[in-house]
Amino acid sequence: MLRTLLEEYALDDAEITRETTFHDDLELESVDLVTLSGSLREHYGDRVNFAAFIADLELDEIIALTVGRLVDHVVVSLRATERS
What is the pLDDT of residues 6-27, one digit of tens each? Predict the structure, then answer.
């Protein structure tokens, strides 16, 4: 999903690790996070609520958001729905 989004900015060959930040490293804006949120919702449905995840973060945490932290959120969300 992230690679698809990055293709729009010709960043599809960028190295992405768990420490890669959306803001500083990938230079994504808030509208890009909305697009990513839509992709996550389309793929996972209600099992992964990115909007609620972001809503619980402070502005500096959103700016410092890493790929790894988002991946952790997805994994935790999916595991929680498996137990239900």
Answer: 887 776 677 899 999 999 999 8
Which CATH number covers residue 68? 1.10.1200
What predicted TM-score, i.e. pTM, was given to this entire model? 0.85
- List CB contacts of 68: < 8 A, sequence separation 6 or more: 17, 18, 19, 20
Residues 6+ positions from 19 with CB-CB distance below 8 Å: 66, 67, 68
44 Cβ neighbours under 8 A, 6+ residues apart: 74, 77, 78
Tell me the two tokens of residue 12: 């599809």
